[in-house]
Amino acid sequence: MAESSPETDVIDYRAAEQLLAARDPRGAVKLLDSVIGRHPEHTAARLLRARAFFLSAQLRAAELEFTVVLEREPDNAFAHFALARTYERANRPEQARRHFRLAAALDPKPEYLAAARFDD
């Protein structure tokens, strides 16, 4: 096994981005597991792994990872939106609504505002 270095971790992170773009979330998770194992504080890698978990329908793992990201970055609108989508897929509408609304309050993007359904 090749020895890890900061350069190989960056390469693994970028490769995981490419795998996710190519619709191989499980492959992305495998690469990100080792990066996060060596750099548990790397929030961007955790966010990418959360997205990969979501895309591979590992909803509980996605929820946990998005929660870690939000503990570190409570103003991350995308993480709130993605966590809301995770709750939505898990049929937990009240929790989803809360995070959709937080996302929209933090960043009033049209897709966040539409999902927040402030008119309801």
TrEMBL record:
InterPro entries: TPR-like_helical_dom_sf, TPR_2, TPR_rpt. PROSITE patterns: TPR. Keywords: Repeat, TPR repeat. It holds the Pfam family TPR_2. TPR repeats lie at residues 77-110. This is Tetratricopeptide repeat protein. The lineage of its organism: Bacteria, Bacillati, Actinomycetota, Actinomycetes, Kitasatosporales.
